[in-house]
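Narrative of accomplishments. A recurring question from our advisory board has been how the design workflow behaves on a single, concrete structure rather than in aggregate. To address it, we present the structure tokens for one chain from the evaluation set, followed by the sequence designed for it. No filtering or post-editing was applied between the two.
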């Protein structure tokens, strides 16, 4: 075995756990879930059936990742984050009969490379969180978040941009639509509401 699973964790025998990954106490990994290399699943976290995690993903304590979510490489999921899978949840159908697994269609949250979801944020499926985006703690995301977008609030709205280092970008002195990371010095250009990294 080239990964570590604590004795109190529940990992279905059909789940795949990548090399170097750690599953902490009381976490549950459901059937068919697949974790990449060097992932960390925190205490009491839940990874739903068939969920896909890339490499170097961190899912902090008590986070709930419901199927069919897909998390790319380097994603951070903060404590008590929830990724939902039903836009119109009901316990019963219109006739009052309890709904079962086949009575509704699960929709997922997709989180792109390097994105971060702050503590207790909620992503209401179906939404996509863009590359290197950042969702503030406590935010409720109901629409897609662009690459490098910084979103806050209920419902979440974009208030700025962040770079790969996670620091909020500042406007550069050499013209409108040019942004710079104060930590790394990397520059970005805003085009039609999208942010792209400058070459070289």
């Amino acid at each position: 075995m080239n990964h570590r699973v604590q004795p109190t964790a529940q990992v279905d025998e059909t789940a795949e756990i990548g090399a170097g990954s750690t599953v902490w106490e009381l976490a549950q990994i459901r059937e068919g879930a697949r974790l990449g290399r060097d992932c960390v699943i925190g205490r009491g976290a839940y990874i739903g059936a068939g969920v896909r995690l890339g490499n170097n993903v961190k899912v902090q304590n008590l986070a709930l990742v419901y199927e069919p979510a897909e998390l790319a490489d380097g994603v951070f999921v903060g404590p008590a984050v929830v990724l939902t899978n039903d836009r119109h949840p009901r316990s019963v159908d219109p006739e009052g009969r309890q709904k079962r697994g086949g009575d509704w269609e699960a929709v997922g949250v997709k989180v792109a490379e390097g994105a971060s979801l702050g503590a207790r944020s909620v992503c209401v499926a179906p939404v996509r969180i863009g590359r290197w985006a950042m969702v503030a703690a406590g935010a409720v995301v109901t629409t897609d978040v662009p690459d490098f977008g910084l979103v806050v609030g209920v419902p979440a709205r974009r208030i700025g941009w962040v770079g790969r280092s996670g620091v909020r970008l500042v406007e550069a002195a050499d013209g409108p639509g040019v942004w710079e990371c104060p930590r790394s010095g990397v520059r970005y250009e805003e085009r039609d509401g999208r942010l792209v990294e400058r070459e070289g």
